[in-house]
Specification:
The protein has 151 residues and is of the alpha/beta class. The protein has one domain: Flavodoxin domain (Rossmann fold, 3-Layer(aba) Sandwich). Helix content is 43%, strand content 25%. The chain is built from five helices and six strands. Strands 1, 2, 3, 4, 5 and 6 form a six-stranded parallel beta sheet that branches. The protein is globular and about 35 Å long. The model has no long low-confidence stretch (mean pLDDT 97).
Amino acid sequence: MKHLLIIYHSQSGSTLKLAEATFKGASREADVETRLLRAMEAGTEDLLWCDAILFGTPENLGYMSGGLKDFFDRTFYPALPHQLNIAYGIFVSAGNDGTGATQQIQRIAKGYPLREVAEPVIVCGEVSIEGIRSCEELGHALAAGLSLGIF
């Protein structure tokens, strides 16, 4: 069985809604085990468990959240010897355009190294039905890719 990890940080609840939508989409693939974890609860052992990962963050002052940054700070060096090279995607709840948060995650992910396999989903403003659907599709796409052996 393949493993998909969804790591997110949320203060207002918007990113949590998007994370739950990615989980719902991923859960459509019965032969992929999916875990949804808050960034502050996830660690290196979770990275070593998964075959693909989705990172969710609010955009805070044009940057990823402190909670997700903390996850990267805690796991980067312990994970480095493993050269993970696993597939990943990003979803952002943005008050602005989300590009700063996205670019910072992409920059950090290259160091693990991780492989970006999906276009980032950036939901600007209030979480909409369209944003929820996009996150469901993102979750399903990564899970389906794992199920089919693409990632």
